[in-house]
Amino acid sequence: MANKRNLKKAINYVASDLFLECIVLKQIKKADATKADEILADILCLQNDFLARVGHPQPGCIKEYYRKLNKDFGDEVGNIIRRMQAM
Questions:
Q1: pTM of the full predicted structure?
Q2: Cα distance between residue 20 and residue 1, in whole Å
Q3: CA–CA separation, 67 vs 58, rounded Å?
């Protein structure tokens, strides 16, 4: 991890890409609007949650904290992508 600012930028970048992709799927594929809206809300919650976690690390081993944060973020993004593919 280079610094918190770069990590926050990466989280915002990934979240905005997911958000845009979900909107495109909703409009072009005429996907279920309620499922798409739920996914959009989850993307926003994901972004807010992880930005808060970056800004306020738990005391202790900082490297392990950010490794876990990175892994958790990847897992959540993977879940959202799978849900978008199932639409």
A1: 0.83
A2: 26
A3: 13
